[in-house]
């Protein structure tokens, strides 16, 4: 009988060492890390294993370091999108060389990563403002995505209702940033997850999912702290992106500190998206409440309490509707904000007026400490001894360090 939670971890380490006797303390080269991208590390088979073990008190999974974007190398593994904004923003997305030469992206000496919309140039009326949209070269299938940021972009926003392609659309005029993931191929075949999408009143973040037909947000409301997005009294629980003006299904965070001036004023915080066979959940923590295990690089969602938002697998298969996701950061201005009629703060003038003056974009910037991706390692115990399921050998030196850290802090 193994009731101690330590034993499986020790065994994991033992196995890691025996399987990787040649592992040295040098970091894996980035290029070989890339080759991990796109590998499915949360299979349905693992899901069944986890389900079986739900009544067992011993931990059934560890989240191990897989990928990290931070410091001077932050921008090395992203593509800069430089086409017209698909959400019809009044924005010019610049390419990599322009982004650096125009100082729209840079890494400070202390390692803080900055991405922003142009906040220095006065524009003629009707001219679009420069900004950036980047997407990770790596594609992920499941994972724990942990974004530590000091501030997310925000700015005065107003809502207009206007006709776009014969449909009445709600159009946000203002700063519209997003941190999201989207799958390869034709949208929305492989799904989209909006993790940070600051709109509305500049105080509450909104989490949303956009998929093909067949995915429903049926998560019981006692499993998350947010509020279902509703339009005209109708809750948007059908995640089908091809209806309701592409609105998808969504949940607005309860916390006022989840976005905008309050979020920035208290030092930002951490957003986490957990995507595994159980579903897709998002947590946000303001700075003072970031769990210790996240700070220490050994995240364990079981410690965090209810997520702000969750799309559970019972209503939507997270391994079927979501695949091959790249991570995206963007900041656009005055784009579509389909299907939402949330009351919003009024700002003077029109979007075009506001675009002219760079001072209006003083807060339209991302300030990021790190973006870390963890992969789930399932291990299962049985009453007659236990077996370890190591479908992917632990070769990652960083992972080893993480596990050692865990053991040292637990002993
Ligand atoms: C980046 O964009 C600028 C402006 O459109 C263009 O002049 C330049 O050639 C582009 N650079 C690359 C490397 O594509
Ligand atoms: C919409 O969802 C909320 C929970 O967020 C619930 O209280 C309300 O009854 C739902 N409304 C409808 C029309 O289903
Ligand atoms: C994901 O990407 C892989 C490799 O490019 C591809 O073979 C697979 O069909 C993609 N999956 C989906 C659901 O598009
Ligand atoms: C930027 O943020 C500061 C601090 O919250 C605020 O005083 C200022 O009005 C903001 N500026 C704009 C243009 O939103």
UniProtKB/TrEMBL annotation:
Positions of the GH16 domain: 59-346
Keywords of the record: Hydrolase, Signal
SUPFAM superfamilies with a match to the protein in the record: Concanavalin A-like lectins/glucanases (SSF49899)
Cleaved signal peptide residues: 1-23
Family annotation (CDD domains): GH16_fungal_Lam16A_glucanase
Pfam name, any one: GH16_XgeA
Molecular function terms from GO: hydrolase activity, hydrolyzing O-glycosyl compounds
InterPro entries: Beta-glucanase-like (IPR000757), ConA-like_dom_sf (IPR013320), Glycosyl_Hydrlase_16 (IPR050546)
GO biological process, one term: glucan catabolic process
Gene3D superfamilies attached to this UniProt entry: 2.60.120.200
Protein name, entry field: Glycoside hydrolase family 16 protein
Organism: Amanita thiersii Skay4041
């Amino acid at each position: 009988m193994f009731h101690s939670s330590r034993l499986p971890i020790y065994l994991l380490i033992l196995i890691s060492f025996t399987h990787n006797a040649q592992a040295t303390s040098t970091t894996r080269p980035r290029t070989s890390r890339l080759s991990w991208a796109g590998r499915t590390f949360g299979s349905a088979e693992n899901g069944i294993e986890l389900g079986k073990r739900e009544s067992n008190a011993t931990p059934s999974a560890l989240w191990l370091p897989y990928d990290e974007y931070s410091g001077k190398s932050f921008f090395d593994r992203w593509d800069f999108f430089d086409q017209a904004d698909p959400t019809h923003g009044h924005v010019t997305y610049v390419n990599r060389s322009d982004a650096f030469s125009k100082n729209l992206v840079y890494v400070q000496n202390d390692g803080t990563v900055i991405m922003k919309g142009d906040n220095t140039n006065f524009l003629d009326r009707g001219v679009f403002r420069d900004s950036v949209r980047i997407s990770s070269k790596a594609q992920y299938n499941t994972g724990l995505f942990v974004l530590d940021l000091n501030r997310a972009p925000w700015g005065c926003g107003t809502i207009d209702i206007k006709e776009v392609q014969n449909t009445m659309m709600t159009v946000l005029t203002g700063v519209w940033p997003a941190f999201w993931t989207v799958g390869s191929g034709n949208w929305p075949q492989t799904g989209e997850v909006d993790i940070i999408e600051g709109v509305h009143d500049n105080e509450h973040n909104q989490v949303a999912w956009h998929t093909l037909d067949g995915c429903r947000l049926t998560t019981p409301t006692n499993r998350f702290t947010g509020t279902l997005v509703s339009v005209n009294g109708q809750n948007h629980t059908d995640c089908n992106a091809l209806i309701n003006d592409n609105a998808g299904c969504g949940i607005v965070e309860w916390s006022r500190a989840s976005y905008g001036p309050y979020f920035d004023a208290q030092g930002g915080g951490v957003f986490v998206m957990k995507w595994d066979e159980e579903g897709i959940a998002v947590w946000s923590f303001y700075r003072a409440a970031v769990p210790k295990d996240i700070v220490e690089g050994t995240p364990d969602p079981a410690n965090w309490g209810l997520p702000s938002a969750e799309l559970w697998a019972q209503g939507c298969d997270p391994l079927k509707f979501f695949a091959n996701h790249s991570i995206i950061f963007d900041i656009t201005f005055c784009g579509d904000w389909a299907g939402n009629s949330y009351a919003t703060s009024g700002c003077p003038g029109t979007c075009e007026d506001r675009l002219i003056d760079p001072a209006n974009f003083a807060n339209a910037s991302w300030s990021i400490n790190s973006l870390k991706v963890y992969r789930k390692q399932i291990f299962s115990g049985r009453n007659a001894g236990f077996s370890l399921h190591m479908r992917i050998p632990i070769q990652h030196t960083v992972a080893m360090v993480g596990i050692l850290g865990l053991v040292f802090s637990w002993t």
